[in-house]
Amino acid sequence: MNIKWEGVMPAVTTKFTDQDTLDLQMFTTNIEAQLEAGVHGIILGGTLGEASTLTDAEKSTLVKTTVDIVDNKVPVIINIAEQSTKGAINAAKKAQEDGANGLMILPPMRYKAGDRETVVYFKEVAKNTDLPIMIYNNPVDYKIEVTLDMFEELLGVDNIQAVKESTRDISNITRIKNRFNDRLKILCGVDTLALESLLMGAQGWVAGLVCAFPKETVAIYELQKAGRIKEALAIYRWFLPLLELDINPKLVQNIKLAEVATGIGTENVRAPRLPLIGDERKMVLQIIENGIKTKPVLPDYKSLVSS
């Protein structure tokens, strides 16, 4: 499957049972809600997916399960976040065996690789898989920036095709467009900059709060694509307090609480994460409850024609 690298691609949460095993029943419920809302891809094993706590066997189960659920309707992409080049290559090969359609790849974990090391890391993984690749560029959280000069080298590799743009610098989208045109597809990776990024030329949105609010998220994307900016902006302004739950160290707990409130998730997280308590929990619940109480009426966004 070729990946267009556009539209809304949820970075889905991983569902756990009370016994700390994969909750594939609730996971299926959530994925089906995403598909019904009209998302354009599913991304597994990211930060929201609690990737650092998952075993290789669990990642494999998630890929195979998701491939079965989506039934070729949208691409299934898994995040690779490994400490070694060998580990990343092995993870890419396993993902391909399990039926994944694409990869999202972070720079090496733990070791702060230099520019040359980071470029070689990405190239080595790319040449050992046929899968299309989106580079996850998040220097704020992961302390390594993939610069435009580095992308200049990386784009010599055909299956490196997209970037999850999470630098928090909105002008970086224009720099990428000016330098690479559409050779490097751009997907915004920061919920609170999503509409701005799309209006500046990003083709897609790797979204977080979509996990709990899939229809509202897709509606924003489809409305702006159709040129109905005023309507997209109204929904986005309603959404912003919720979207801010994504740019927080407790984003996993926050978003899982929101999934509970909308009936498509549970609160279970894997230790060392723990469910929210006390005033922190009350504050997050208040934001979620207010958002649900004031939810906008959505237009028939699935039938819109692009401008």
From TrEMBL:
Belongs to the DapA family. It comes from Aquimarina litoralis. The lineage of its organism: Bacteria, Pseudomonadati, Bacteroidota, Flavobacteriia, Flavobacteriales. Pfam families: DHDPS (PF00701). The keyword Endoplasmic reticulum does not apply. SMART domains: DHDPS. Keywords: Lyase. This is Dihydrodipicolinate synthase family protein. InterPro entries: Aldolase_TIM (IPR013785), DapA-like (IPR002220). Gene3D superfamilies: Aldolase class I.
